[in-house]
Amino acid sequence: MKKDKVLTSYEINPYTMMIRPAGDAYSEVIEEGARYLVSSRPFDIVKKSCEYFGSSYSGRREGTKQLIGITHKAPIIVDPFTSIYLFPTASPSSPQCTWISHDYIASYEKNGPYATDVMFQNSERFELPISFYSLENQVSRTAMLRIKFTQNMRRMENLNKNHLLHKRVSEPNGAY
Prior knowledge:
alpha+beta
């Protein structure tokens, strides 16, 4: 971790793998190839990043509720354009809550009744204070959110293509 400097702000990006608490008012951000200490709690980083990408955290959470009906420990789409999906390991307001990027999880295995080892795509491994079954549930919920959102986007793309095709066929002499 880069300990020589504490960042005062951080925006979640496609390289963000995990954000976990580091003391009372700090976070350790693990990116692919880098680590940062940030003088904000994980939940505050998530909320600010949602705003950075044009929505509020409550708006992202409401979107999850509309798409898959999940309200408790809900996964969220931080940025739909770059497909950043995060899920919390506990209640988001809990000081122990860690946020994990769905994209980077390679595997996970039980490490006691209330601990799970998470292996990321870059071969880094972290022990997290969450039961195996809770983590598995959060990974599944996030996958459901990703699938539902992707299905809706494809449906809209197909509607748009069909509309344009119909419009071209119905226009005389190919005029648009």
